[in-house]
Amino acid sequence: MAKLRGRGYASVNYPTGMNLGGDPSQALIHATTTGTFVVSLSSVDLGQGIKTIAAQCAAETLGLPIENVLVDTADTDTGPHCMGTFASRGTHRVGNAVIMAAAEARGVMLEVAAEELEVDAADLETDGTGYIAVKGARDKRVHITDLALAAHFKHGRTISGRGIYLKEPSTPVPETGEMDPDSCQAHACTVAVVEVDDETGVVEVLELFNTYEVGRALNPAMATQQVEGGAWMGVSHALFETTEPYYPARDHGPRDFAGYLMPGPADLPVQHSLLLERPADNGPYGAKGIGEMTANAPIPAIANAIFDACGVRLTAMPFTPERVLRGLDALRTEEPC
Amino acid sequence: MPSQIVSLDVNGERREFIAAPGATLLACLRESLGLTAAKRGCAQGACGTCTVLVDGRPEAACLVAVETVAGSAIRTLEGVATGGDLDEVQSAFIDCFATQCGFCTPGMIMVAEALLDRDPDPSEADVIEAISGNVCRCTGYRPIVIAILEAARRRRERAVTR
Predict the structure, then answer these.
(1) Which ranges form a coiled coil (chain A) (predicted)?
(2) Confidence bin at A246 (pLDDT 50/70/90)
(3) Most exposed: A32, A52, A169, B136, by fewest CB within 10 Å?
């Protein structure tokens, strides 16, 4: 009896947004009297970080500090339309809508600054610290707080912008099947290193190597967290989770956290993650969606690693000790010693 | 059995409220006292997000009948920061990216507080054991383990310089 080590890999190509498109998201942006830019969205942040991404896109486009951006996702009844945070679409669709809205708002901001400074708007630039200044004459400048006050109370202007991103719906050509299925695809490869105990059938994932081509990682820390949290969920699907474990009747299945098997903090593989960046033409600053795909590649990679370790080819998840042992038994029957 | 007046020391302040028979500590904290940091997840002691400290021990508040802890000192996440200043565990959770959706975070921080109170220099295995009753579905646990070890380091450093 031994602990057998194996290594396997799997790759995934994953489309960003709804298949065949037709899924718009909107963003509205306006400056308050004191120069805070409120980005109104109906896109929900459930921890994936869309508020951070939206704030980054708005700040970058406006040319203002991120502290000047407030993202409001409070109310889907009154907010601008969002198709939803699913299909790995948030960063791509919402990010693009925010950039469009912020670009319009930036245009107005520069127009008002031009009036305020009595120069041409084309001669103005932002420096990312909150000032709008004349190119080549840095002393001639106005701070966004003063500018927003002047816009409201002196010029009667609203510094605002509208944005929407729609991947136009595509229908397959019946004769050829030709279509435009997605805006862009992210790619990933995971290598799993496992240890299989051929006496107990227990599989332990020792290491995961995750490589993700994400277009552009707008926030590398959050992207890495998504990759590794998603990989954990992949390990969980591969080895633990099922609502129909061993029992003949569905009635005996788990109904709650007490009976539903999940890996705990002691079941953690060591993860090594690498982000590759090949910006997508239609992505917000080149970004693609990597939400859902992060749970995908680890599962077949682990299955392949189990095969490499002990010769058992498993095709049904989760890869439980019982299934591994049955597979080992079958191998022994095939090849009697 | 009639409702009764229960008195608790909550985050250093004496609080009295009327509790229905069998009311849980969690329900009283959330509904009678308005302290909503401790969350109701599974309501059966399996997920850990309702964890508060009862006389320094981490307990699943959803399983504690409030009359059984009358007079005890309760510490909730609301009592961890000093004014606007986050403590070492809270700031390490931010710096180490140890939250995503945040639903498990109140419980994770409270078990970490209890751990560091009794052991200022825990091993990684100690941290893993301490949080093993708390479910997280986003992070894969690793950033949480790292954050708690980092919080311990910062707290020891602060103790030396003080």
Answers:
(1) none
(2) low
(3) A169
Nearest residue of A to residue B47 by CA position? A257
For chain B, which domains are there?
4-79 (3.10.20.30), 88-161 (1.10.150.120)
- Is the ipTM higher than 0.95? The answer is no
| Average pLDDT value for chain B | 96
Pick from A228, A236, A239 the residue to mutate for testing the B interface (most B CBs within 10 Å): A228
| Residue of chain B minimizing CA distance to A226 | B139
Tell me, letter by letter, the H, E, C secondary structure of A254-304.
Answer: CCCCCCCCCCCCCCCCEEEEEEECCCCCCCHHHCCCCCHHHHCCHHHHHHH
Domains and CATH numbers, chain A: 3-15+183-334 (3.30.365.10), 25-165 (3.30.365.10)
Sheet with A69-72: list strands edge to edge.
A69-72, A37-40, A25-31, A160-165
Residue A194 half-sphere exposure, CB side, CA atoms within 13 Å? 34
Using the structure block, give the residue that is written with the tokens 């020792």: A206
pLDDT digits (tens, 9 = 90+) for B51-110: 999 999 999 999 999 999 999 999 999 999 999 999 999 999 999 999 999 999 999 999
Q: Is B142 on the interface with A (CB under 8 A)?
A: yes
User: Which residue blocks in B37-123 are alpha helix, DSSP H?
Assistant: 88-95, 105-118
| Average pLDDT over every residue of B132-137 | 94
Q: Do B46 and A256 touch (CB under 8 A)?
A: yes
Cα A328 from Cα A312, distance rounded (Å): 6
Active site residue A292: yes
